[in-house]
Automatic annotation (TrEMBL):
InterPro entries: YjiS-like. Pfam families: YjiS-like. Residues 30-64 form the YjiS-like domain. This is DUF1127 domain-containing protein.
Amino acid sequence: MTLSRTNIKLASFLDSAREHYFQAREAVHQARLRRARYRATLSELVALSDRDLKDLGIARANIRKIAKQELLIGENE
């Protein structure tokens, strides 16, 4: 009887650990996707000329801030 209870507890623990593992794995995957989107936006903005940035009303000093804002807006959609 004791062995059976131990097996049930172990199975429950393993199921819980497996669930946490897959949740953490998904969180890492999502973080990588967000980071890639941030880098792509940042690269596009950095590649623009000062004149293009001025036409868009963006100061070069604000490029990182705008890339982060785009990332947050994209998460809310």
